[in-house]
Amino acid sequence: MKQLTITIPLVKKDEAELTPDEANLLEKAKQATYRSYSPYSHFSVGAAALLDDGTIIEGANQENCAYPSGLCAERTAVFYANAQYPDRAITLLCVAARDTEGNFTPRPIPPCGGCRQVLSETEDRQHQPMRVMLYGTEGIYFVNTVKDLLPIHFDTTYL
Ligand code: THU
Hints:
Blueprint: E1 11-13, H1 20-33, E2 44-51, E3 56-60, H2 73-84, E4 90-98, H3 113-126, E5 131-136, E6 139-143
Parallel strand pairs: 4-5
Antiparallel strand pairs: 1-6, 2-3, 2-4, 5-6
Helix pairs in contact: 2-3
Tetrahydrodeoxyuridine binds next to α2.
């Protein structure tokens, strides 16, 4: 038997340490939370994707009374970006969320497993890393590639 350990490089910043591009993307992700349609969970998530030509695409979670038919903010933004700009890479994706009280979450908001899988394939498809920025009022996490959020990931090489 062997014990294997995977370590994930995470950078933690506070808002004051963000670059102008990062601060701008965060603002867009925060604004997107106000366009969430989340009458069931009352949890409002916003995502903003920065494309390699400077375009910013925003998404918010969209729920449905048939619960599994809804979609997370990250996938709303990324699918739209890929549908509208299939040849552009997403260089940075920012996620922010407000809780049931309407306050931004203290902890950085982690994308769900399904979103990680979609982000992972988007990264493979664009042949360049997508940085991910997870906002919380107590700190902002950065990873330099989606693979750091989804180690041991499933991809097309297994098919
Ligand atoms: N949600 C997102 O949009 N992104 C996340 O990272 C976590 C969860 C949404 C799905 C659902 O509409 C609500 O938040 C509560 O789970």
